[in-house]
Inverse folding.
């Protein structure tokens, strides 16, 4: 591969990493960041950029599409939330800033799918990118909320990664499942509930009740996906061919975080 090809492939991920560093600098100047916050933000940004670069190379894409740029902005904000969450273990977190970034990230999750459809730039990479950004933001929020609501809340954020680990042991869990709009609804509910819990805007009873409902919906959605993949495995074993439909957006088309 010549130099003319390598440079465009790496431009998107490097721009994303620079955006993370700029955001961390802004947070440091406005609300302050300790070493833990800087480390969490930088590590998150490096991992996200490396994974995105690998995805671009794997799919032989030279650059990000319009919807992917919106998703990249969400990834940057998620890294900022991770930095504030890491900082919150040593001192009180700037809750308004953390909640504001989360709200913008959740709104952009709605925007990127619309952009993909309007520009007709849906892609498997965009769908996977959206999925992983959703999963990471929910994981970070669950870590923050677990400190006040209880360690059981971590199950909400860990579910996606538990499925990835299970997929390493059971290859059939790595197959693509048919997209279900309900999975995106469940993912959105998790984000909103965790954001509300982080903002501490509801009485404790209702916050815990909402978290329980979010976890129950997540469990139901993941159970349905596992059943769908198992059924696909069975049908394949008896000779029935399954062809996943094309993604309907560049972001949430493949498997939502709560699939």
């Amino acid at each position: 591969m010549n130099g003319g090809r390598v440079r465009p492939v790496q431009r998107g991920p490097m721009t994303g990493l620079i955006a993370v560093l700029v955001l961390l600098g802004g947070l440091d100047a406005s609300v302050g960041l300790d070493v833990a916050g800087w480390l969490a933000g930088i590590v998150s940004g490096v991992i996200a950029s490396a994974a995105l670069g690998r995805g671009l190379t794997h799919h032989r894409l030279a650059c990000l599409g319009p919807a992917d740029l919106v998703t990249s902005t969400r990834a940057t904000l998620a890294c900022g939330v991770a930095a504030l969450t890491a900082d919150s273990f040593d001192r009180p977190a700037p809750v308004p800033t953390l909640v504001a970034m989360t709200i913008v990230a959740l709104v952009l999750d709605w925007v990127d799918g619309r952009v993909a459809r309007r520009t007709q730039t849906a892609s498997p990479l965009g769908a996977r990118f959206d999925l992983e950004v959703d999963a990471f933001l929910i994981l970070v929020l669950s870590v923050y909320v677990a400190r006040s609501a209880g360690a059981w809340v971590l199950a909400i954020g860990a579910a996606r990664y538990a499925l990835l680990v299970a997929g390493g042991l059971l290859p059939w869990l790595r197959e693509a499942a048919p997209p279900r709009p309900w999975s995106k609804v469940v993912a959105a509910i998790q984000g909103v509930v965790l954001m509300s819990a982080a903002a501490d805007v509801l009485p404790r009873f209702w916050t815990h009740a909402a978290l329980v409902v979010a976890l129950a919906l997540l469990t139901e959605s993941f159970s349905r996906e596992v059943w769908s993949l198992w059924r696909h495995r069975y049908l394949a074993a008896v000779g029935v061919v399954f062809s996943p439909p094309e993604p309907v957006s560049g972001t949430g088309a493949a498997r939502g975080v709560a699939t």
